[in-house]
Amino acid sequence: MREEKPILRLETISGLSPFDTPRNEPLLRNARLSYNPNNRSKNGSGSGTPCNFACLSVAEKREQQRDFAPTPAQLLNHPLAALSAYVPKDAAIFAAGAIAGAAAKTVTAPLDRIKLLMQTHGVRAGQESAKKAIGFVEAIVLIGKDEGLKGYWKGNLPQVIRVVPYSAVQLFAYETYKKLFKGKDGELSVIGRLAAGACAGMTSTFITYPLDVLRLRLAVEPGYRTMSEVALTMLREEGFASFYYGLGPSLLGIAPYIAVNFCIFDLVKKALPEEYRQKTQASLLTAVVSAACATLTCYPLDTVRRQMQMRGTPYKSVLEAIPGIIERDGVIGLYRGFLPNALKNLPNSRKSIETKRGNLQILYASKEGQEEPQTDRISKSEDQVILVERYGSGTVKRYIVDDDLQIRTFLEKHDSRSNELQSSDLSDPILSWLPDILKDFVFPAGFPGSVSDDYLQYLLLQLPTNVTGWICHTLVTSSLLKAVGVGSFSGTTAAASAAAIRWVSKDGIGALGRLFIGGRFGNLFDDDPKQWRMYADFIGSAGSIFDLTTQVYPAYFLPLASLGNLAKAVARGLKDPSFRVIQNHFAISGNLGEVAAKEEVWEVTAQLLGLSLGILILDTPGLVKSYPVLVSTWASIRLLHLWLRYLSLSALRFNTINLKRARILVKSHVLHSRVPGCNDCNKEENILSWQRFIKPRIVFGVPMEEILGGGRSTSMLKSLLRMYAREEYILTVNQQRKDFEVFVSFKVGATSVSVLRSVWQTYWLHEYMNNSENIYDQLAKSLSEMNDRFEEFIQQLDKAGWDTDQINIRVPNEISIDECPV
After folding, report:
1. If you ran DSSP here, which 8-state letter would residue 18 be given?
2. Which of 127, 448, 498, 581 could make an S-S bridge to 529, C-beta 3.0–4.6 Å?
């Protein structure tokens, strides 16, 4: 426990009556004060007259508080003074916030109960009631008529109780998630903070969710008067799972609400003229608009949650609830109770957003304030900076030698890609507002220099083109379902519309998988198209398993079919880019369009034959009626399909060099001073293996602190910098592992050839390194061997038919180092 020094502060308290010492038994009977600082004795003891203390605030260890405990008389006379002395400041602030939150919930409880009644009236009324929805005024009158004034606060107690555990869990979870979302540089980006906040909200929602369900049941279901009565009834009749009905839409709505709220707030704020941005009216307007947009976006999930929390709800998932509500009440049914919800939340929206933005601004300001003296120190001793480590987030870490010849590091926050923006077309104001993380998600690496000039214009026009196409697809799907008997034009069209929504929702969930794959893993396919094409078939097979199980669980058709469609969409997201790389490999004459067209002929022919054989199998007597036989037949044919896919991919003979083929070529050259040809190398290449499981293990893009093994030795760092002065990378062996492993960190300007050179050095060390010798001597020897033999290696590659101009080995761009003169 840290030492806490008592601090004594004298203040004049007006209107405070003095008391005699014997009657009040003061806390410090023999205390003396010296009013003349010049009369302090050498031993430090005070001199003066005995004094009585009206109020004393002492920070002491917990075990010492017994000796200084105030008497009952003092507690009665000065309760606030005693409270301030014994209650920690953080606990007092938390308690005050909890009280304020409970008070706010109590004040807005009538609006909240009206909203709940409007949201759930359709489920409570049942199928036999002609009146399946009530309005705002009607709900007010209904509560007052049936239950009186107290009825407006029915169900508020669980909501008030929930405030304390929800806030406590959220604060603890937020601090925990912040540590998880920190980058390699130890910094937490704005996106990371939003993600940590969303995850913390989900965690606190999950833990306190039973109280939310109790609150709804108590508020809207008649006959209940206490929380214990509701809880016991739920446990007895529905089981423990009933306390988590509707949890899915609750968790789904948290992250979108936060994202839309902040995004709209910033966009509206930036759209305003500069002179209006700081005005109170502008802040209020932007807060109201952003809160309204976020509520409009996520409110249907709140309606779904409330109806799924009800006893006897017909909905088991979000995908069932949304079409069901639309079928019964129309689209407006998803927004029942929106008016009282807006009246309850919008007045607080400006305060909430300004508080969050203020916290972020204070945080950034504090970081800048901390970095400023560091920057000044760096500028005063610029000759001591020996290395600069640059991160993809824009953060810069400087390695500086101090007076004790030890390394100190300083972080500086910079705008990422600032140098690139100055020399690229991306500085166009049309795209300047996009966050870097979004640019990386939707554009290829190196954009716009890595694509043609018409790329962006084509995509901007292609987006609305595809939107209109999918709108037409949705409408056509509704007509197809009507044609096969789901609804009719002569009767109600609600059933057909609901069925169409279910079907299209299944496709939409699958499209999310393709979106994620294309945005997150778009840079993987050029390196190893054979591997990702094979993985696509594995994932597609898993999706088919979900489709097969719909026959066993028809009640869960929509979630199972959606999961199957999601898996198959992910597989398609892997398959299509990989196959385009393969097609490009075939088109050696620049005839990519013709190659793709002829491949389509083969594909359609195979499709027609497969459909015909599938129909014949289904017509086999007894097969359709026997589910185990059907599953066995599918499994056998699917295994045959995967084996044939593996054979077809193994037949490919790429003459480009990726990391897997580079390992094979380098190993052969290091051991035998020769390289295999394209056919032999492609045959030896393992399509299924991952790089992290291939020996020797190579870790690319490692921070310099890990390269140094966690040490701070200046001589070690300077030795490495001198050793690799002519290379575009720094490589060392991880001596903390028993298995052989190397760390590689790349310098600014490194290319695929630099990665290839590091692989060559790695394999030489793996084959010839002697553990008894000095590691730096062996690193120097491996560098010397590589410099002597690498040119010969490249010449042999050319003679063997390899395209040395197409080395598809990606250079990690998350971390790069920029060395300074040593």
Report:
1. P
2. 581
Q: Which CATH superfamily is domain 92-363 in?
A: Mitochondrial carrier domain (1.50.40.10)
Instruction: Round to whole Å and give the CA distance between 123 and 306.
Output: 10
| Number of neighbouring beta carbons within 10 Å of residue 335 | 18
Peptide bond just before 18 cis, omega within 30 deg: no
- Distance separating alpha carbons of residues 499 and 70, to the nearest angstrom: 72
Find out whether 211 and 244 touch, Cβ atoms under 8 Å.
no
Q: Model confidence over 671-685: pLDDT tens digits? A: 998 999 988 998 888
Alpha carbon distance 820, 384 (integer Å)? 9
Helix (H) or strand (E) holding 210: helix 190-220
DSSP state, 130? S
- Among candidates 820, 805, 814, which has minimal Cα distance to 746? 814
Structural contact between residues 347 and 329, judged by C-beta atoms closer than 8 angstroms: no
User: Residue 29 in 3-state DSSP?
Assistant: coil
Tens digits of residue pLDDT in 576-597: 777 788 878 777 777 777 777 7
Identify residue 178 by its one-letter amino acid code: K
Distance of alpha carbon 747 from alpha carbon 273, whole angstroms: 43
Q: What are phi and psi of 397, to 5 degrees?
A: -115, 125
Q: Which two three-digit tokens encode residue 555?
A: 């009640």
- Cα 326 from Cα 599, distance rounded (Å): 44
The span from the CA of 205 to the CA of 95, in Å, is 20
Spatial neighbors of 504 by CB under 8 A, at least 6 apart, are 473, 474, 477
Contacts of 78 (CB under 8 A, 6+ apart): 54, 55
pLDDT at 84: 56
Residues of the chain with CATH 1.50.40.10: 92-363
Shortest CA distance to 753 belongs to which of 786, 788, 710?
A: 786
pLDDT of the residue at 339: 81
Average pLDDT over residues 262-274: 71
Longest dimension (CA), the chain: 112
- What H or E segment, with its residue span, contains residue 782? helix 775-799
Give dist(CA 418, CA 317) in Å, integer: 46
Quickly count: other Cβ atoms within 10 Å of residue 134's Cβ.
19
3-state secondary structure of 662: helix
In three-state secondary structure terms, 742 is strand
Give Cα separations from 225 to 208, 219, 221, 230, 463 (angstroms). 21, 9, 10, 8, 55
What is the spatial distance between Cα 762 and Cα 758, in angstroms, rounded to a whole number? 6
Per-residue pLDDT of 125-150, as tens digits, reads 554 444 556 777 888 888 888 888 88
Q: CA–CA separation, 260 vs 268, rounded Å?
A: 12
- Among 249, 21, 266, smallest CA distance to 119 is for 249
In one-letter notation, the amino acid at residue 55 is: C
Q: Which two tokens stand for residue 615?
A: 């129909």
Higher local confidence (pLDDT), 49 or 423? 49
Phi/psi at 186 (5° precision): 80, 0
Q: How far apart are CA 649 and CA 685, in angstroms?
A: 11
CA dihedral 701, 702, 703, 707 (to 10 degrees): -140
Cβ 90 vs Cβ 172: under 8 Å = no
pLDDT of 114-127, one tens digit each?
A: 888 887 876 665 54
Q: How many helices (H) and strands (E) does the chain have?
A: 27, 7
Contact predicate 197/159, CB 8 Å: no
The identity of residue 212, as a single letter, is D
Question: Token pair 């009282």 is at which residue?
Answer: 340
Residues 6+ apart with CB under 8 A from 641: 537
What angle (nearest 5°) sits at the alpha carbon of residue 270, between those of residues 267 and 274? 160
Asked whether residue 29 carries a pLDDT value surpassing 50, the answer given is no
Burial 580-600 (b: 16+ CB within 10 A, else e): ebbeeeeeeeeeeeebeeeee
Task: Using the structure block, give the residue that is written with the tokens 């962006």.
Answer: 456
CB atoms within 10 A of CB 50: 12
